[in-house]
Write a structure and sequence with these properties.
The chain has 175 residues and is mostly helical. The protein has 6 helices and no strands. The two termini are 26 Å apart. The structure holds fe (ii) ion (2 copies).
């Protein structure tokens, strides 16, 4: 069974992951509105990832006989000045999520909750990927600058992203 404090912190993380989904869905809508359908697709896939993250935490609390208590989800920003501004915001958001995951790890270690610590390690790795994939697009957009056709090319590339369900919890350790 998880501690009261851990349960509360994970409930907070479920909220943060659902907010992340909401934020990226809002970015997807923004990209749709400016006809960058590849960018919109990338953000839509990211939304699906965030929903999976939320469900992983949801399942973990239930498996450990904790109680999931859902809180209101904050409304996301709906407009950005440019594709670069949106991706910079996405990157900044992921850095913040990483900080939250690290705090959860600190709490698990303090609680000597090894099961939760083990569970959280998947997220520690995932955050490395999350930060780097958002930053990769930021760097591409900066590199492109005002080059004609650059945005079109990046849009084509981001349109290729497809959602893949991450392996079930524990599968990596069992391999
Ligand atoms: Fe996430
Ligand atoms: Fe990811």
């Amino acid at each position: 069974m998880i501690s009261e404090k851990m349960q509360e912190a994970i409930n907070g993380q479920i909220n943060a992951e659902l907010y992340s989904a909401y934020l990226y869905l809002s970015m997807s809508a923004y990209f749709n509105s400016i006809n960058l359908l590849g960018f919109a697709n990338w953000m839509r896939v990211q939304t699906q990832e965030e929903l999976v993250h939320a469900m992983k935490f949801f399942d973990h609390v239930n498996e450990r006989n904790g109680r999931v208590l859902l809180k209101p989800i904050q409304g996301p920003t709906t407009q950005w000045d440019s594709p670069l501004a949106a991706f910079e915001a996405a990157y900044k958001h992921e850095v913040e999520v990483t900080r939250m995951i690290n705090n959860l790890v600190d709490l698990a270690l303090k609680d000597k909750d090894h099961a939760t610590n083990n569970f959280l390690q998947w997220f520690v790795s995932e955050q490395v990927e999350e930060e780097s994939s958002a930053d990769a697009v930021v760097q591409k957009l900066k590199l492109m600058g005002d080059a004609p056709g650059g945005l079109f090319l990046i849009d084509q590339e981001l349109g290729q992203r497809v959602f893949t369900m991450p392996p079930a919890e524990g599968a990596a350790a069992a391999q």
